[in-house]
Each structure stands twice: as structure tokens, then as C-alpha cells.
Amino acid sequence: MISTSQLQNLSSQLEGELYFDNLMKAIYATDASVYRMLPLAVAVPKTKNDIMRLVKFAKTYKTALIPRAAGTSLAGQCVGTGIVVDISKYFNKIINIDEKQRTVTVQPGVVRDELNAYLKPFGLFFGPNTSTSNRCMIGGMVGNNSSGTTSIKYGVTRDKVLKLDVVLSDGSEVVFSHLSKQEFDEKLKYDTLEGDIYRTLKTALESDRVKKQIKDNFPKPEIHRRNTGYAIDKLIESEVFETSEKAINVCDLLTGSEGTLAFTTEITLQLDELPPAENIMVAAHFRSIEHCLDAVELVMNYDLYTCEMLDKTILDLTRHNKKQQANREFIDGDPEAILMCELKSDDKSELTKKAGLLIDDLKLSGLAYANVLLEGGRIDQANELRKAGLGLLGNMIGDEKTAACIEDTAVALEDLSEYIKSFSQLMETHNQKPVYYAHAGAGELHLRPILNLKKKSDVKLFREITTDVAHLVKRFQGSMSGEHGDGIVRAEFIPLMIGDENYAILKQIKSVFDPENIFNPGKIVEAFPMDKSLRYVPDREEPEIETVLDFSDTLGILREAEKCNGSGDCRKLPEFGGTMCPSYRATRNEKDTTRARANALREFLTHSEKENRFDHKELKEVFDLCLSCKACASECPSSVDVARLKAEFQYQYQKANGIHWRTKLFAYNNTINRYGSRLPRLSNAMFSNGLTASVLKKIFGIANARTFPRISSKSLYKTFETIKNKGNRNEELKDVYLFNDEFTNYLDTSIGIDAIELLTALNYNIILIKHPESGRAFLSKGLLDKAKAYANRNVELFKDLISKDAPLIGIEPSAILTFKDEYLRLADDKVSANKIAEHTYLVEEFIHQEIECGHITSDQFTLEAKRIKFHGHCHQKALSNQLSSFAILNLPKNYEVTIIPSGCCGMAGSFGYEKEHYKVSMQIGEQTLFPAIRRANDTVMISANGTSCRHQIKDGTEREALHPITILRQALISN
Known about the structure:
Elements: H1 4-13, E1 17-19, H2 22-27, E2 41-44, H3 48-61, E3 65-68, E4 83-86, E5 94-98, E6 103-106, H4 112-119, E7 124-125, H5 138-144, H6 151-154, E8 161-167, E9 173-176, E10 178-179, H7 181-187, H8 193-205, H9 208-217, H10 232-235, E11 248-249, H11 251-254, E12 263-270, E13 272-273, E14 278-286, H12 289-294, H13 296-299, E15 306-311, H14 312-317, E16 337-345, H15 348-365, E17 368-375, H16 377-387, H17 389-392, E18 401-402, H18 416-429, E19 437-438, E20 450-451, H19 456-475, H20 494-498, H21 500-513, H22 557-562, H23 582-587, H24 594-607, H25 617-623, H26 631-635, H27 642-657, H28 661-667, H29 669-676, H30 680-688, H31 690-700, H32 716-723, E21 734-739, H33 742-746, H34 749-761, E22 764-767, H35 776-780, H36 784-798, E23 808-810, H37 813-816, H38 823-826, H39 830-838, E24 840-842, H40 843-852, E25 866-871, H41 874-879, H42 883-889, E26 895-899, H43 918-927, H44 929-935, E27 941-944, H45 947-957, E28 961-962, H46 964-971
Parallel strand pairs: 2-4, 3-4, 21-22, 21-23, 23-24, 25-26, 25-27, 27-28
Antiparallel strand pairs: 1-2, 5-6, 6-12, 7-13, 8-9, 8-12, 10-11, 14-16, 14-17, 15-16, 15-19, 18-20
């Protein structure tokens, strides 16, 4: 057994990091598969020397190295009991590009879409394109031989790998690349492990009998998605073993080997020229799966660039995902399946003609009932819908989930329809209605049974279904692993798929590369059992966990955490849009992802032996950098709401450990501001004076570089008394209740005044009643009992006032949107809370609706020209949308408005004020928001509707940001 002191000694030798605490081991115990293995440690190497030291340690102490990039593997490739080696943080450099040869050399942690963004100015790109392309890494794609949507046109990763720099199991560095027969023969003379490898390959593969048995038993050669075991069928095509002009390249063997043979440190790839600029997609709709698959051969005659299939199960799941609502607009009726056929050309007229012919053929076939033509952004929307498919499968409520086990089968295109018919009959014998998804044009469908792997009976079915499907695939001489790899789930079926004699050759290859079995054991050869080491212990007693927030829609907080299937969408970088996950984007640490937080909570709630299962410092650590931005609630395909999980955790943890006085300070900031407002000049003088402000910051643990918000001279409640009778006295259009949130009342009173004056001038009757604060500060600090009390009081107060004809509107997004979010989970009167939520709007949303109704027009506003850059609040993005703010800012005819694609600003209420979080807060601001504002000249107005956002912009750029309502009030033509 390896001791803590031995791990500490290893840690001291590494330039990177080594973790062996319970939190990091729990986070890395799972990937995107159904498996769970607690690792010995987690290494984050910084240099090639670190890799070599890890290899030496593993060899010396008889442990394993499990390579991991983005950790999105579906077959269990990234789990194991040894040291998980995460290359994603430091091994992410693009080393060089050769434009003439169209090649690029990268480290294995480079993100696929990041690489293509770099290559685009050169007119080049890396073709294989997985659904995880905005976070998957080239090293993982090589390990899995990934392919994705474009494989029918550009091939798979193996087709692109020219050279691999690796560390072998003896610690030696070797470069594998193309070799002529003469160069190969020279390698046979080496008295090294590299020489042993070449000699073993020659001896194992050179006989005609062996070559015949490989060709007879491996998947049909026309199936280009083939990932079954090691690709010895590719090696024998070379001039070393056949009469051929093809050079041999051991990279063919290493690609798809899942890190079981060597540790890759550099990858050289063959690139393609960028595809044609013009594209059109035909989305063919079908009333049955059979009709859809019968149409595949027909549509593939049109030289498609992609040919993807979605079935009704996936389509129905998108109905309940906020982010996917807009992406569904192209769907006509209620299809059982959609085939997405993409054509490309540089000639638009030729493309249109070709699409028309395709539609004519589909109509003539009688197979499709509708053929929707998509262009431009609508294609992107359809592709986003498809990409979200795998993650959305995690949205199924309860313990029954789609299980990844048979989801990667591929057959020859001419066998596809017959294979699916046989597959469907087989599933009927198991009482299954599987999910059909993915790459129909390549003969591969991600077929998934729906199972509850918490039950022994379904674990038994898990094996039975996989076994039966393996025999079916073998009957069609298909590939059990098309692109997702063998991993744990399929590795034990490799002997069946390729024959025992061929499997013996794979074992021989593994043995020569890795005699000590240190590289990712249990995958491909000598496989771990596919029905052991599962994420859940079958037939366990489910923990009963009481919560303040209502998690009944997911059957409890534990199942809310279990919704995370590991797809890793929370690891996408800022340049790929969205907000999730701001802390990961700043630190690039897995610990700071949405996935890590959900997984850690699941681990401790499941396995804790404490009476209060939340009472673990590890959970406090993993939630520490969560900004509660709520992006995960809308951007995570499984809609895992980590902000809600964090709030509940904080409450439960504080029950056991008490509430820190600074936590109370921030939670009760409205009370403090109320007292401060009695002497606003004195309060502001203390906050702005360098000496007193510095003392206060030191006492309260606030970052010294921060500025305090200024308290208004009069609260909005007091000001309202003096302005309520001013303004337009024309016939009023509607009564509107303005929620005077705690931030507007004492800190941003001028914005409240602008809102009242603007809406009054536009003929709305503004009603301001005394009401409690929203409770947002208490929610953010986990004081849920206090937040619940405010929710109940506000619901009771507004339940008989708010209606379609008298809506509730608010200025500060984080406050008003509690009515549409947390109140629904806190309030005792759920019926009234939902009724209020239905008629509650951000002030921009309300004005936008009134514009749509024709009640507000551009004629009421200035013709002056202005340019505006707008940053939206995170809660607005997650629970509403930014388009309403964009629309109202565009109301003046000559206003030019752009939305900054900025994600989170980094302030997040008190988070950015706290000295220990200040650095991360500013790193988040520097990702997109600050640079975008600095690039804007002084004539460009900056707008932000969140009070925290405006303060962050001021502290980070020294620019004043105005609320959209203030800008619109200034633009109003006075009566």
C-alpha cells in the first residue's frame, strides 16, 4: 500500500500539483460514464518531466496512471484506482503550424474548438467534430479515436494523426510517425523498448494466416467508425505487411488505445482546408424510426457533410430545457425522428438547387412527412439542439436513466435499416423502448436502453442487453465501439467481436508496451467487469435528506445532484459563449466546475456517516468559488442548478458550524443600509475616506481595492411621496406594481426614480406599496430560514394584487427574479407564489411587451444618435433573457446597441467584495467584459442592469455603467 509520505515525496518532486485529499479523489472518481472508482491521487502535471516522474513512481510502487483530459468519456476510460493524471490545465499549448504541409503540433490538452479558432485565419481546420467540441481535448480525441458529425466527409481522428511524442512505460521518450519498410526494419535493430515494440508487431502480424483472421473478424472495412480494441487491422494495410505503398505508422495503433499503451505529450495532426462557406440543412421529419432509417441511403447520395438523427425522446426532453426553447422553432409537428442533412458549396445557387432535388427525392419516397429548409443561424440552432442531446438525456426525472452501454454501435450503411429492425425486436424482448440518436449517415446510432442502475435487477439487464447487442453487432460484422471507445463498458466483449486469436495479439501488444500494466489498466485488455464499480451501489437504501428548499420536482436534493451525468459543458471556455462556469474559466481547475460541485455533493450525501450529511469541510471548499450565477440552471443540458444546491448546503452546514459574523454582515446589508440612510452624508464620507474605508475593509475582510457603494440621500420610498403626482396625466394604460427592492431603495434610488418617471410619462399608473425586501442577500449566504420568511410575507402581500392587468415589475434582476425562482421553492403557499410569478417581470421585459402591443413607440423618444454596449445580469440570462434589454435600448430610432458576450461580470453580490475572492472576481471580469469596455471609446455608453455588475465595471474599468431604464428615461421626449 502506498503511504501518505510517499505521495508527499512525489508531490515535492513535481512542478505541477498532486492531490490526495478526499475532495479531489471524490471529484475524479467519475467521468461521464456509469462507473465510479476512487483514485489513489490526482496529478496535474506541468511539464514532460512531471510525466516521466509519474511513470517512474507508478512503476516503482506498482500503481497505475489514468490519463484524463476533459473527462467526458462515456465508457469509463477515465476512472481507476491509481493516479488520475489531468493534463487539461497545463498541457494546452499549440506548439507550431506548418501552413504548407497543412499540419499542426499541439499538446494533448488543447480544446478542439480552440484549435480550430486558431487555425481559421490560415484557412485550415481539424475535421473530427464531436458534440463536446467546445471542451473536449485533442488528447482525449486521440485516445478515443473520436469522429463526430463530420466523419462522413473528413474521416476520424486516426486519419489525421501523423506523429505522437510519447513517454513509454520505462520512462523513455519516443516519437511514433510514418515509417517506410526500410525505416521499420532499422527500428527492429534497436536494443530498447521501442525496438521490442516493433519486433513484437512484426512477429505477431506478419503471417498470412494472422492477416486473414484479422480481416475475417474485425469490423467491415467500409465502417470508418471502428474502435474495437487496438487497430491491428490498420497496421496490416501497410507495406510492411502487404504489397502496398502505404507507410506504417504506430500512431494508428495508439489512436483509440485509450492511454493503455503510452503517455502522449505532443500530437501532430493533418489538417483540411476550411469547408465551403455556404451551407443549407434539410431537416426531414418522419412519423417512424423505420421511415427515417430507410431514408438514410437515399439522402447519402447527395454528398452530405453531416447526416444526423434525433428521435422523439430527445426532442421531447428539449421542451423542458430553457436554453433549447429557441432552438426548437424549426420542428414541424410531433415527429418520431428528424434527419438533419447538411449540404455545403461555395456556389449558393448550386447549393439551393441541390437542396431542392434532395427534398424532391424525399417527397417522392413518401418517407418524410415534412422537409424544413434551414439556413444561416437556424442551422446553428438546430446543431445546438442536436449537440445538447446526450446531456439532455440526464434530464429524466427519477432513477431511471438512459444507460451508455450499447450507444456506440456502428454497421455498414447498407446494413443499417436491417440492423435497427433486428435491434428493435431484441429490445422488445427486454421490454425496452430505446433512445435513437446520432450519426445515421455513418451507420452509427447512439442507442440507449432506459435502466435504473440502482437496482440489481436492472444491473443484470444492463449486462444482458449489452451481451445480446454484442452478438447482434457481430452478426452484421459491425463495430461495438464506433467512437466512444471500449473503456470498461465494452472491453470485455472485444474477444467476442474480433475472436480469441486476435484478442491474444492485443494482449501481446499491451504486454510489450506496458509489461508492468501501469497505463490505464482494465481497459481494452484484461478488462474490468462491465457491471461492477458502478456509480451507485445496487439496491442501496436511499438516504432521506430533509431540505428547506423544495426539491420535489427532482425527487429530492440528492437526485438533483445525480442529474449531472458528467458531460462537462461547464468546462467550455469564454470564447465559446455563455456564462457557465465563471469560476472554472478563471482557475481552469476541475474542482471549480459545476460538475465537480454536483459530484462532490452526491458523493458526500451518499457516503457520509454523519447525522448532518452536509457537514463536511470538503463541500465548503468545493462550493466556495461558486458565484451562484445560475448559468448552470439554463446552460447545463441536465439543468443542474448548483446555485440552489449551494444555498441549501450553506444553510445545512451553518446549522452544524454556526454563521460567521461577516456572513451576517452581508446578509443583513439592507438593515445596515437602512441605518446608514439616516445619516447618508456621514455614511458616505466614512465609505469614501481613504483611512476610514481602509479600516472598515480590514475589519470586514473586504478587498482593499474595492469601492463601497454610496447610500442615496433619500430612499425611494421617501422620494416616491414627492414624485408620485408628477408626470403625464393622460389616460393610464395599466396599473403596475413596482417592487422596490433593497438595492434600489437605498443605493440606486436614482434608477428607481427614472423608472417611475419614465413609466408615468408613458401613461402607466405606478403603485409602490410598503413590502419586505426580496431576501436575495439571505439566499446568497444560505440563511434560508430568513429568506423563507421574506418569501412568505411577500407572497401573502402580493397574492391578491398581482394579475395579468396589474403585473409586478422590478429593477434589480437578482431581487425581482426571486419571485420566479426561489420563491417557488420557499413559499408555503405554492399556488399563490406561482400565480405571482406568472405576472412578474423585469422592468425591461414589461416595457418590451408593451412595445410589442403597440403601447410604446419610437416616436416618444429622441432622434439623437448614440452607441451603447450592454452587459446583462447573470440571473436575467438564466431565468429570462437579454433580448428585452436589447429591444428597449433600441427603441430610440438612432440608438445602435450591441450586447457584450460577457458571461458573468465576476462580482456576484458580496462575492467580489470578499478579499479571498477578489482575485478570481477580477479574473472573471477580465475574460470578456473588461476588455470589451476598454475597447469602447468614451462616446460609447456602457449599460448594465445589475447593481453588482455596475460596481464591477466601475472597479475594473473606471467606466460608469447606466441602467437601461436610465438611458431610456434620458431619451424620452419631454411632454
